[in-house]
């Protein structure tokens, strides 16, 4: 009996952390079922590159310099619906998780829980979905609780909110998101206004109360 040869995949990564990108690319390149790996440092570079069309799987970070990963997922899903998208990120707010899934992602993996990336690729390529344990717990918990209706926050505002709640300084938030201090302060002012809070403590309490993260 002739054993059917397994298909090989073309994998792409969009990530602006050069060190992390190189590390993951090296891991993926050694896999038997991966025939090629393409990488981009921004959403815009990825969208401009026609070679994207040949991908089977595309890993996306959420925090990118201009267009974020969630918006990129939506655009790739629209232009290339056959590409299977996996979010690979540090961001784990409920809003971003569900927004990613609604915009075409079949996987949501935290960088800290990357584990066996070969298994992740094979599961998604073979028609499955993949989320890491921490994300699975958040998804289950979000279905169990009745969430109060809160104000609408943009993707970038949610990113800033999560970093603030995690105790990051404004300078750290600006550096992490590759934004100017004035831009970050503008986002913070708008977040405080939308949530009707006046301090970091009130901000954290309101974010928890409204299940914004």
Short overview:
This protein is an alpha/beta fold and 213 residues long.
Structure commentary:
By secondary structure, the protein is of the alpha/beta class. The protein has two domains: 136 residues, Rossmann fold (3-Layer(aba) Sandwich); 55 residues, Arc Repressor Mutant, subunit A. It contains ten helices and six strands. A six-stranded parallel β-sheet has the order 2-1-3-4-5-6, sandwiched between helices. Helix 8 crosses helix 9. The N and C termini lie far apart (53 Å). The model has no long low-confidence stretch (mean pLDDT 87).
Unreliable segments of 5+ consecutive residues: none
Q: Give the neighbour order of strands across the main sheet.
A: 2-1-3-4-5-6
> Which class do the helix and strand fractions yield?
alpha/beta
Q: How much of the residues is beta strand, in percent?
A: 5-15%
Mean pLDDT: 87
State the helix count.
10
Distance between the termini: 53 Å
Approximately how much helix is present in the residues? 40-55%
How many domains comprise the coordinates? 2
Please describe the structure with a list of short key phrases separated by commas or semicolons.
alpha/beta; globular; Rossmann fold; 6-stranded parallel sheet; Arc Repressor Mutant, subunit A; 213 residues
């Amino acid at each position: 009996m002739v054993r059917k040869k397994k298909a090989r995949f073309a994998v792409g990564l969009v990530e602006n952390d050069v060190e992390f990108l190189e590390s993951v690319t090296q891991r993926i390149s050694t896999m038997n079922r991966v025939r090629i790996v393409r990488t981009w440092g921004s959403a815009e570079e990825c969208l401009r590159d026609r070679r994207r069309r040949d991908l089977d799987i595309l890993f996306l970070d959420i925090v990118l310099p201009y267009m974020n990963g969630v918006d990129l997922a939506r655009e790739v899903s629209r232009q290339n619906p056959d590409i299977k998208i996996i979010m690979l990120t540090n961001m784990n707010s409920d809003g971003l998780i569900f927004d990613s899934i609604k915009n075409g992602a079949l996987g949501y993996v935290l960088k800290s829980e990357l584990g066996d990336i070969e298994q992740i690729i094979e599961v998604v390529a073979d028609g499955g979905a993949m989320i890491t344990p921490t994300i699975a717990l958040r998804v289950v918990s979000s279905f169990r609780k009745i969430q109060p209706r809160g104000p609408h926050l943009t993707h970038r505002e949610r990113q800033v909110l999560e970093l603030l709640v995690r105790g990051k300084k404004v300078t750290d938030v600006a550096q992490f998101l590759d934004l100017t201090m004035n831009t970050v302060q503008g986002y913070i002012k708008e977040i405080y206004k939308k949530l009707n809070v006046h301090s970091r403590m009130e901000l954290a309490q309101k974010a928890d109360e409204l299940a914004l993260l």
